[in-house]
Amino acid sequence: MAARDYKALLARLRPLLALALMVVAMSLLSDRFLTPDNGWNILRQISVNLCLSIGMTLVILSGGIDLSVGAILGLAGAVAAGVLRSGIEIPGTEWVLQCTPSGAILVGVAVGAAAGWVNGFTVTRFRLPPFVATLAMLSIARGATMLWTGGFPITGLGDGFGRIGTGALLGVPVPVWIMVGLTAVFVVVTTRTRFGRHLYAVGGNERAARLTGLNVGRIKLAVYTLAGALAGVAGLIVTARLDSAQPNAGLGYELDSIAAVVIGGTSLAGGRGSIMGTVLGCLIIGVLNNGLFLLNVSPFWQQVIKGLVILLAVALDRMNSKDKDS
Q1: How many Å apart are CA 71 and CA 208, to the nearest integer?
Q2: Percentage of the chain surpassing pLDDT 90?
Q3: What is the pLDDT of residues 26-76, one digit of tens each?
Q4: Rg of the chain over CA atoms, in angstroms?
Q5: Are the C-beta atoms of residues 199 and 219 closer than 8 Å to each other?
Q6: CA–centroid distance for 303 within its chain
Q7: Which pLDDT value is given to residue 194?
Q8: Tens-digit pLDDT profile for residues 142-155
Q9: Closest CA to 176 of 164, 161, 158
Q10: Per-residue pLDDT for 128 more than 80?
Q11: Paired sense of beta strands 244-245 and 154-155, if any
Q12: Residues in Cβ contact with 234 at an 8 Å cutoff, skipping those fewer than 6 apart
C-alpha cells in the first residue's frame, strides 16, 4: 500500500481512533465512566445532538451552514408544549381545539420544518449567504419563543408526552430508538437514493451541478427543511425529558452540532462526509462532555476545551483537503 493510501485510510479512521483513545483515557481517569448506566446516559445525551447533527450534515454537505438549529429546537418544543397544555384557539370563534400528545408532536415537527423552509427559501430565492440567513432565523426563533412563552417555562405536559424523553422500549430509552431510526433512514437517503447523489453533487461543485441540469434550489430547499424538521424532533425530546418547555432551550446547541459534524469528517467546503461519521462525531462530543463532567472540570474550561477540539478538527480537515488537492 502506498504512503498516500495509508494517509487516506488514516484520515477515514481518524474519528474512530479519536473515540477509542478518548474512551480509554476517560476509563483510566474516572472509575464511574465505564459503567452500563453511564453508557446509557451518554446515549441519551447525544440523542438530541445527533438529531440536530444529521440535519446539519445534510446542510454542510450541500455547501451551506445552519446557525439556527438550536433556536428552532427551542421554538418547536415551546409551541408543542403550548398547544398540548392550552390547545389551539380557532380565530373568530370561542372554540379551542385540544391537542393529544401525538398532535403536539406533529405540530412541533411542522414548526421546525416551516422554520427550516424559510431558511432554504431565503438562501435560494434571495441568494443570501447561509450564514446570514440562518443567523437572522436564530434571532427570529429566539424572539418568537419568548413571545409564545412570555419568558416563562411551560410545565406539566403529562406522562404520554413525557415518554418521548424518559420512556423505554425493550429496555432501551425511547430517545435512543429515535436516534437509531433517524440514523438508519438518513444513511439510506444519503447513500442509496438519487437525492443523496444530487446532494453530494451540489456540495462538491454547485456550478457543475447546475450545468448538468440539477435543480439546485429545490435540493437546498429540501435540505434546510429537513434540518428544521430534525431540530423540531430534537426540541420534542428535550421538552419531554424535562417535562417543561424552557424559553432558552437549545442555547449554544448549534456549536455542538457543527463540532460533531466536522469532527466526524464532513468537510465544511461541502460535498464530502457521511452520516456515520457524524454519529462518531456525536459520540466523541458526548464522551468528552460526560468525561469532563465526571472529572469535575469547570463548565468554563469545558467550553474552552470543546473550542480547541473544534479548531483541531477544522485544521485537520483543511490539511486533508490540501493533501487531496495536491
Answers
A1: 34
A2: 63
A3: 889 888 888 999 999 999 999 999 999 999 999 999 999 999 999 999 999
A4: 20
A5: yes
A6: 18
A7: 95
A8: 999 999 999 999 99
A9: 164
A10: yes
A11: antiparallel
A12: 48, 49, 51, 52, 69, 73, 250, 253
Give the chain's end-to-end CA distance (angstroms, integer).
19
| DSSP count for the chain of H helices, then E strands | 13, 6
219 close to 202: Cβ distance less than 8 angstroms: yes
Statement: the pTM of the whole predicted model exceeds 0.85? yes
29: which 3 cell numbers? 481517569
Who contacts 15 (Cβ-Cβ below 8 Å, separation ≥6)? 263, 264, 265, 277, 280, 281, 284
What pLDDT, in 10s, does the model give residues 199-217? 999 999 999 999 999 999 9
DSSP single-letter state for residue 93:
S
For residue 255, count CB atoms less than 10 angstroms from its CB and return exposed for 0-12, middle for 13-18, buried for 19 or more. Answer: middle
**Contact by Cβ (8 Å): 78, 148:** yes
Measured between alpha carbons, how far is 33 from 182 in angstroms, rounded to an integer? 27
DSSP string, 34-93: SSHHHHHHHHHHHHHHHHHHHHHHHHHHTT---S-HHHHHHHHHHHHHHHHHH-EEPTTS
Instruction: Please state, in angstroms and rounded to a whole number, the distance separating the CA atoms of residues 301 and 78.
Output: 30
* pLDDT class of 4 with cuts at 50, 70, 90: low
Cβ atoms within 10 Å, residue 271: 19
Q: How far is CA 125 from CA 120, 128, 150, 296, in A?
A: 8, 8, 33, 48
Confidence of residue 310 (pLDDT cuts 50, 70, 90): confident
- The rounded distance, in Å, linking the Cα atoms of 40 and 103 is 29
| C-beta of residue 157 within 8 angstroms of C-beta of residue 81 | yes
Dihedral angle, C-alpha 257, 260, 262, 268, nearest 10 ° = -20
Average pLDDT, stretch 91-120?
A: 90
What region does 88 belong to: left with phi over 0, alpha with psi -120 to 50, or beta? beta
